[in-house]
Specification:
178 residues, alpha/beta, five-stranded mixed beta sheet, two-stranded antiparallel sheet, 6 helices, 38% helix, globular
Length: 178
């Protein structure tokens, strides 16, 4: 009896975790990128339309100052000149607030905006929101948006250290065919 109850409880827990970790639908390549209008770490309103005519690397990450997120942000920082030389901008997004982003950006000398998506609306519109144990987090996904505002490349569950190099290689490839 105790084993049956334990198995039943484990099944209920597994179903709850799977439901809570689910995400909304990812935008697909060629689709118009979902619009956003959110404050960054400096209190500046950032909109997708601000990047019209440029390539945009929009990367989502779970939480400021966690090991993987710090690795990813610093990798983008270290590769920012290569990305900018390709005519692209980088914008990070998480569900942390602006003050957390400001401390994170200042501490790690991040030269790009971090969007304070406190309600998770941007993450949700990009299929990158998840709820885990009652907390909203962004999934580690990245999108390259072309100068016309369309999704050019989607990366899901990225490797934090490798993703900036993948983005640079794909920007080269995309720009040669665009």
């Amino acid at each position: 009896m105790r084993i049956a109850v334990a198995l039943f409880m484990l099944l209920i827990l597994a179903m709850w975790v799977m439901r809570s970790a689910s995400a909304s639908e990812l935008p697909t390549v060629g689709q118009k990128a979902p619009e956003f209008s959110v404050m960054d770490q400096n209190g500046k309103l950032q909109k997708l339309s601000d990047y019209q005519g440029k390539w945009l690397v929009l990367y989502f990450y779970p939480k400021d100052e966690t090991p993987g997120c710090t690795t990813e942000a610093c990798a983008y920082r270290d590769d920012i000149h290569n990305i900018q030389n390709l005519g692209a901008a980088v914008v990070g997004v998480s569900i942390d607030d602006a003050s957390s982003h400001a401390e994170f950006a200042d501490k790690h000398h991040l030269p790009f905006p971090l969007l304070a998506d406190k309600e998770g609306t941007v993450a949700k519109s990009y299929g990158s929101e998840r709820t885990l144990l009652g907390y909203k987090l962004a999934r580690r996904n990245t999108f390259i948006i072309d100068p016309t505002g369309r999704i050019a490349k989607v990366y899901v569950n990225v490797d934090a250290e490798v993703n900036p190099r993948e983005v640079i290689a794909d920007l080269h490839r995309l720009q040669s065919t665009h």
